[in-house]
Amino acid sequence: MAVCKSLMVNYGKIIMITLLITAVLLEMLVSPVQGTIAYQFPRYTYKKKPKIERFFKQEWRKCELTRECEQMFGVERTRCIRICLAPICHDEIYSYDELEEGEIDVRSSSFKGCWRQRYHDIRIRTNRSDL
Fold first, then answer.
1. Residue 127: exposure state from Cβ atoms within 10 A (0-12, 13-18, ≥19)
2. When comparing pLDDT for 119 and 58, which is higher?
3. Residues near 72 by beta carbon (within 8 Å), at least 6 away in sequence
4. Per-residue pLDDT tens for 54-112?
5. pTM of this prediction?
6. CA 47 to chain centre
7. Across 33-58, average pLDDT
8. End-to-end alpha-carbon separation of the chain, Å?
9. SS3 letters across 15-38
10. How far, in Å, are 11, 68, 89, 114, 117 from residue 44 at the CA level?
């Protein structure tokens, strides 16, 4: 009987240690590491408005059909189209850390916002001043 109680106590300790190690490992996976730097890039607001979105897609399609971009695929094609659309915005948002294959592009909205401010709005102002 004493042997049985001894085994049960040891078994309980093993279970507790296993649970403690599991909890520590899960905490390390879920919690951000101290001292990490948040992903930073210039942020521009972009509100989807049908007229601007339609114009953006038209301009995107024009760049997509250029000789340079038409021959590319995947991330390289997207990069080419963005450079064609708004080289200043591409440099500002992507040049220090290019988009990689399979990466979720969290900067695309900022790119569109930059494009709208620097290219679309300028075109509208220049067209209105010509009238």
1. exposed
2. 58
3. 80
4. 999 999 999 999 999 999 999 999 999 999 999 999 999 998 888 889 988 889 999 99
5. 0.63
6. 17
7. 78
8. 101
9. HHHHHHHHHHHHHHHHCCCCCCCC
10. 58, 28, 10, 6, 9
| Alpha-carbon distances, residue 28 vs 36, 93, 122 (angstroms) | 13, 31, 48
> Per-residue DSSP letters for the chain?
-HHHHHHHHHHHHHHHHHHHHHHHHHHHHHSPPTTPPPP----------HHHHHHHHHHHHHHHTSHHHHT--HHHHHHHHHHHH-HHHHHHHHTTS---TT---TTHHHHHHHHIIIIIHHHHHHHHHH-
Fill in the amino acid letter for 59.
E
CB atoms within 10 A of CB 35: 5
- Written as one letter, the residue type at 61 is R
Q: 105: left (phi > 0), else alpha (psi -120 to 50), else beta?
A: beta
Q: Tokens in use for 117?
A: 């401010």
